[in-house]
Amino acid sequence: MNLNALLDLLPPEFRLQDSAKDARGICELVVDSSLKISIEEQPLTQDLYLYSVVASIAEADPTPLFETLLEAQLFSRELGEGISFGFDRAESAVLIWRKLGGENADSESCTRSLTEFINWAEHWQAKLNAPVVEADESDAGVSMPEHFIRA
């Protein structure tokens, strides 16, 4: 599926048309005036990718942030299936991204995937940009789980 086919499949509430693409061929959707979702086509394979910058990394040591992201991604605990985190070193930014569609994609599955992606992007943008709250000393003890898949 190419980007034009995806734009044709999406319902009118997304208000995306071929004219929504910029000069680079990337379609950008702005949600609630603050979250930018990009849809880009890989030219050789025509695979489509959704991605969004959810945070900038300003910390001297980003290790705690990366630990949070990896923990959330474990077994899709706090991130939708098929959605992953990425790190853009040039921009010092955390992204979430997802490969979208496929040869048999239809309007309903694309809409569902795009909606789920937007919801997770909003969640992570809010979570990663929230003010830091210091933990109590009583929370300092960390125990290992008996299993990894948690209910």
TrEMBL record:
Q: Which Pfam families match?
A: CesT
Query: Known InterPro entries for this protein?
Result: Tir_chaperone
Q: Which CDD domains match?
A: T3SC_I-like (cd16364)
- Taxonomically, the superkingdom here is Bacteria
Q: Which GO terms describe its biological process?
A: protein secretion by the type III secretion system
The name this protein goes by in its record: Tir chaperone protein (CesT) family protein
Protein species of origin: Prosthecobacter dejongeii
